[in-house]
Amino acid sequence: MDDILRAGVAVYNAGEYHAAHDAWEAHWLELERGSDDERFLHGLIQFTAAVYHARRGNWSGATGLAESAREYLSVLPATYRGVDVDAVRTALASLRTDPERIERTRPPSLAIDGETLLPGDLEFEAASVAAEVLADEYDRYDEAVVAAGIEFAREELGSARTRFITFVMDFAADDTHRDVIYQRLSEHVERRRQQERDVAGLFD
To answer: Which of 51, 76, 78, 179 has its CA 20 to 30 A from that of 154?
Structure first.
C-alpha cells in the first residue's frame, strides 16, 4: 500500500487532483469494508474529488464530498500511515463551509511523515503507479505504451540498464516535457517490441 499511497499523494501535490484518486481506487476496492485502511483511502479519494469539484466551480458536489470524506476519516487517529489526518479533516471542514476558497488559495498539500511529496521524489514502483494514472488522465497518451514501458523498466531493475526506468520516472515527474518524454518512450517501446518479434520469428 505504501507505493500507491505515495503515488497518489505526489500526483495530488502536483495539481492532478482528478488523477490522484485513481492511484488509490483499485486498491481501495479490494479492502475490507469498514476497515481503517478502507476508510482512510475512501476519505482521501473523496477529499481529492472534493478539491477537484471545487476547482471546477461545482460547489454542491464539493461540499457533499467534503462532508462524506470527513465522516470516513472521523474514526482515524490524528496521523495514519504517516499522513496528517487531522490536517485533512481541517481542510475538509473549511472546504465544506466555503468551497470557493479553493479559487482564492491553493488547495492544502498532503504530506507523508512530514514530507510533501512530488512525483520527482518517488522511487520506481511508486513512480510507475503515478505514470499509469497520468497516462490514463490524458487522451493523448496510450496507456498500453506506458504499461509496456513499465514492464520493460522492471526487467532493468538490478541491471546496468536504466533507459526504460528513466523514461517511466521522467514521464511521471516532468509535466513540462511529458509529451516529448512520452514520444521517446513510445519509440523505444516499439523498437523493443520489434526486437522481440524478430527473435520470435527465428523460432517459427
So the answer is: 179
